[in-house]
Amino acid sequence: DITDINLSLYEKYEILILALVLISTFILVFSPHFNYRYPFHVDEWHHLAKTVQVMHSIKDIDTIPYFKYILNPYNLDLEVGFHLFLAGFFSLTKLDPILFYKFLPAIFAVISSLILFFLMYNLTKNFLISIFSMIFFASLRSNINILGLWFFTPLTLAIPLIYLAILTFMIGIEKNQKMLFIASLILIILIFIHPISFILVFTAILLYLLINKNLTKNNLIGLSPLLIPPLFGILYLLSLPKWFIILKSVFDL
After folding, report:
1. Which listed residue, of 27, 105, 128, 190, carries a Cα 20 to 30 Å from 40's Cα?
2. Angle at CA of residue 70, ends 65 and 72, nearest 5°
3. Greater confidence, 173 or 162?
4. How far apart are CA 215 and CA 94, in angstroms?
5. In a 3-state reduction of DSSP, which class is residue 37?
């Protein structure tokens, strides 16, 4: 029973500080919408258009959402996972996509911040460092040019998955190799949501393994789940016939 858990006064203060930082993060990220009910950035409106299009018919996922009958052969959606997530979320919750969209940046900033806390605590075992990491994360600058936490885009959805992939990877190589399968699954999801994030995270993991050569040599079989995401990514890209259309158009120029 959770009511039987005896927490020390210090631990209660830690939980209180953690909760206050999360609430402050939500308020800070949501603050641009205090006097504005709708998405800000043109990218958000574009993703909303794709989301509503998928909600009406998933068959139209590779068509331009602004034209009803025109199929654009070069409209390759490499962030299809983001649009499917939003379409599924709004379809299940029955929320208005346009009016609720303003809450998504703040919600996922809080989720990202919480996962970052666990990641940093796993690495440092230091509560203060983990808290200051959350504060630094919440203070990252956002604007219409570099985007950031104030806007809900594929990268915003990818951020908590990036932290979670690194966290499960670190736990997997240290304590529980089954966590490497979870890390691999998260990386595969990243391929569909934000491919650039997958490339950066997987490159960082490879560099870590190359630097820690003893860890790699002594655990080659245990690290084998990490081969799944890049192989899956290659097969996924090769399965996209529109790649060949794009390449043909480039070489024909």
Report:
1. 190
2. 80
3. 162
4. 48
5. coil
Q: Please report the sign of the dihedral spanned by the C-alpha atoms of residue 113, residue 153, residue 101, residue 168.
A: negative
Q: Return the amino acid letter for 201.
A: V
Q: 60: alpha, beta or left, given left = phi > 0 and alpha = psi -120 to 50? A: alpha
Report whether 249 contacts 74 (CB < 8 A).
Answer: yes
- Distance of CA 220 to CAs 9, 71, 147, 176, 237, Å? 44, 47, 39, 15, 27
227, β-bridge pairs: none
List the end-to-end C-alpha distance of the chain, in Å, as a whole number.
69
Q: Do 73 and 242 meet the contact criterion of CB atoms below 8 Å apart?
A: yes
Distance CA 65, CA 84 (A): 14
Residues 215, 238: Cα–Cα separation, whole Å: 32
Q: Is the pLDDT of residue 236 over 80?
A: no
Distance CA 170, CA 119 (A): 9
Cβ atoms of 76 and 243 within 8 Å: the answer is yes
pLDDT 10s digits, 28-64: 999 988 988 888 888 899 899 888 888 887 766 667 7
Length of the chain: 253
Q: What is the per-residue pLDDT across 56-88, written as a single tens digit (0 to 9) for each?
A: 877 666 677 777 655 554 566 778 889 889 999
Rounded Cα–Cα distance for residues 160 and 154 (Å): 11
In whole angstroms, give the CA distance from residue 115 to residue 102.
Answer: 22
